[in-house]
């Protein structure tokens, strides 16, 4: 396809998360976020997720999130750079513990609310539409310690209090919302996704799905609340997406791939269709899961579905039903076989632009709701040359091919609201706790040990993306 023109109102932008960019981790009354407990990659970051109680009792040398890239104090400089690129929107999250430090308070922290007032005002100064994730892997630590997070139904009320506070406060500043970031990740990293410790659970799968039920009810109730406070609000769900391919034409492989995709669709089936999918009955039976529901749960999920389906896409996945073949290798948090037809990034994430088109068509066919790609990008080690330039042609190549396939999918009939590549400015990697794994158009002088000036500089991809936005996607050269 050549010279596809994106719609005039297409939302080009970029994406970050509070817990990976803000820093100022205890400033102005902020409480602890889950990420604030996680040490650097050199000190066993993923061990912290396996044993959160040990992490809370252990002192490490360096926590990357504590200062991160200091967006908290540098947001004006960063948003000005986004505006220079021509951003139409900016996806960010509101730190829950910055507004409610322990999570269960009734009165919000005014200093935290004021910070986002300033951020949103700065966005609107340049005509940038904020796209806000309400809970992006930062359930307050207090809710995990005192209630075991989303495993406890009380967390629904705490979340809704948070939602009501920000919906009312930013009623005239924010139109686009998402209830949870990558809601399906609770199955893979329950501490991050659910703010809970499942290590001592009698049936860990039941605890996870009970927490999922609480999040799905909370999402529906938040959608209802958001529409009541401002009928103009567009409220979406958000999935970590990527179609799973069967390793061979063997029907067993095809079935295994379908099951893998259903694992994620399960969440959006509820949020976009309004009911638990038919296959959930067998799933719960085989995993010996008995969900505790309250009167009205199913009705609120049915009556308050989302306005759009947002998702992250980094790569497709590959699976086999053969246990000998299916010796899975790590790719992101999702285990996947290596696809011999695809190249991979330095971190082993397989690069599959056509997979984005396939994923978009699959999601749109299933839900018939507008889509929003809110994460996509290439994590890589960037080299600063002697003259200060950063020639990230590999990132340009990755994004160019993905934007091209976005256009193809839209030609296929898929309705797409916008595109916000992940980590538009370098930030701390959630997956590995590193700074050297960079995604941004803007380089931040900070290394894995926390050294560096934090100065911002433009990469080659900065000017490329600026041109893409200026031409509304017609010039990808």
Overview of the structural elements:
The protein has 477 residues and is an alpha/beta fold. An 8-stranded parallel beta barrel has the order 1-2-3-4-5-7-13-14, surrounded by 4 helices. A two-stranded parallel sheet has the order 6-8. The model has no long low-confidence stretch (mean pLDDT 94). The protein has a single domain, classed as TIM Barrel, CATH 3.20.20.80. The chain has helices at residues 18-21, 45-50, 52-57, 71-85, 96-99, 110-125, 141-147, 154-169, 190-194, 204-229, 251-273, 280-286, 297-303, 353-367, 393-411, 460-470, and strands spanning 11-15, 89-93, 129-135, 176-180, 234-241, 244-246, 308-313, 317-319, 329-331, 334-336, 343-344, 350-351, 371-375, 416-419, 442-444, 456-458.
Which labels suit this protein?
globular; alpha/beta
Q: Could you provide a short overview of the structure?
A:
The chain is of the alpha/beta class and 477 residues long.
- Secondary structure category: alpha/beta
CATH superfamily grouping: Glycosidases
CATH topology: TIM Barrel
Walk across the major sheet and give the strand order.
Answer: 1-2-3-4-5-7-13-14
Whole-number tally of structural domains: 1
Q: What's the total number of strands? A: 16
Q: State Rg.
A: 21 Å
Roughly what is the average pLDDT, rounded to an integer? 94
Total helical elements: 16
CATH class: Alpha Beta
The major β-sheet equals: 8 strands, parallel, barrel
Shape: globular
Summarize the amount of helix as a percent range: 25-40%
